Amino acid sequence: MELINKLEVLADSAKYDVSCSSSGSSRQNSPEGMGNSAPSGICHSWSDDGRCISLLKTLFTNSCIYDCAYCINRASNDRPRASFTPRQVAELTINFYKRNYIEGLFLSSGIKKDPDYTMEQIVETLRLLREEYKFNGYIHAKAIPGSDLRLIFEAGQLADRISVNIELPSRESLKNLAPQKSALDILNPMKNIGSRIGEARENRRKYRHAEKFVPAGQSTQLIVGASPESDYRIMKLADGLYSSYNLKRVYYSAFMPVKPDSRLPALKTPPLLREHRLYQADWLLRFYDFEVEELFSGYRANLDYRLDPKLNWALNNLDRFPVEINQADYHELLRVPGIGPRSARKIVETRQETRISYQNLKKLGPVLKRAKYFITCQGKYRAGIPFREDLIKVRVREQERGNDYQQASLFAGVQEEKKEGEKA
């Protein structure tokens, strides 16, 4: 098969893997090499400094010995198959970089022959790029569950980010939908990679030139809607992964029906709004000091998809509002819909020099069309309606109506991945 035809097949097969965004890497560049890894990101994603950046996103092979019910590349699915060689991937990456098409590589793979063989091919690809082609650019590689940990650790020394996709939120669902996979084969590499990342960071604190290991961290992907787990169970799992596995990101992917199967739900469209709300809830856990139980008060198993989780929490806890902008501490400000970490810090810093008026508040970055219902400024309530639960709920729900949520396109003409941002 011609190389360009292989790329078309394997890039298309890679589009369902969303765990490929990056906040950048601080790995040391080699002076004689090409490219730059820091700050960098991938797949038309967004770096820490706000730049939009791109990568070559492909599978090494879409041939797979597994027959996972939810996967487009499952063994029983009749579709074109192709495989690269390590040198083909390396040369494609370098040639695309020289033409300024990309700034990095995201390399995943189906399981060809067995996990060890597949992981060996990925490691060899990374070795060629780093050692032979002297490529400094960003590389995100997929660790193959069930492969030898020594191979995964070798990949971690060459890549900026490693991901092991957990895919399903429970062992029961994994057994039902992907019976050839083992939960231990997925969790053990994640645990060991997390431990190595922690050790490497500690060594870097002690010794400036200590070796780095997966400097951009590890991530994973959860498929939403292919199995019956509730939002609460999904978020509890994500929270546990963040706290126990040194995880940088959990990505949520709305289930896309690709082949009829009696084990799968009969969905006409992917649960895109549910995916969107889970991302918002995840953001609250990581950056807003929320606990999972707070987002599911009243023993609810699922989020209220009509409202974003922070706004819904505020409406269910109106006894804690309104807060006075000139008196509330940082953590109280974080709980206000429309105020994020950056705005909260600016408010606290500005208060050290002067009292904040409503006009000054507009310049500090909060989204006042939301925040105004939950704050006072110099003792004045400026929402335009009385502070009453029924009136506030009607008004904010009117504002939420009509929002259109779409799943990010990850390849298809290299369309832009949805931007991560501070969503208060």
Spatial ordering of strands, largest sheet: 3-4-5-6-7-8
What fold name goes in the CATH topology slot of the largest domain? TIM Barrel
Element order, helices and strands? HEEEHEHEHEHHEHEHHHEHHHHEH
Number of domains: 2
In the CATH scheme, the class of the largest domain would be: Alpha Beta
Secondary structure: number of strands = 10
Beta-strand residue fraction = 5-15%
CATH superfamily of the largest domain: Aldolase class I
> In DSSP terms, counting alpha (H) and pi (I) runs of 4 or more, how many helices?
15
Percent of residues in helical segments?
Answer: 25-40%
How does the overall form come out from the CA principal axes?
globular
**Euclidean distance between termini CA atoms:** 49 Å
Taking the sheet with the most strands, its summary is:
6 strands, parallel
CATH architecture of the largest domain: Alpha-Beta Barrel
Query: Which class of secondary structure composition applies to the elements?
Result: alpha/beta
